[in-house]
Amino acid sequence: MILPSNQLAEFLALYNKNSGKRSEIEGVDGPDDAIALLEKASKRFKGHAAEAKA
User: Fold this and answer.
1) Predicted confidence pLDDT, tens digits, the chain (54 residues)
2) Under a CB-based contact definition with an 8 Å cutoff, are residues 11 and 3 in contact?
3) Residue 9's Cα: distance from chain center in Å?
4) What residues contact 21, with CB distance under 8 A and at least 6 apart?
């Protein structure tokens, strides 16, 4: 199920409010951009994990 961006923004705002976290939505792009961001974050995470093991 894919939520419209306004529903996702509302969900994240309520989640962050209830969990005491702060974050802001920086933009709304399509699924291709989302996948690219996830791949970039995954590579960064794997790099940090490898450094921690060394």
Assistant:
1) 666 778 888 888 898 889 988 777 777 788 899 899 999 999 999 887 777 776
2) yes
3) 12
4) 15
Containing H/E element for 13?
A: helix 5-19
DSSP 3-state of 3: coil
Count of all residues that appear for the chain in the document: 54
Q: Which residue has the tokens 């791949």?
A: 39
Q: Which two tokens stand for residue 22?
A: 């702060």
Residue ranges of the domains in the chain? Answer: 5-53
For Cα atoms 24, 20, 23, give the angle at the middle one, nearest 5 degrees: 10
Rounded to whole angstroms, how far apart are CA atoms 32 and 38? 10
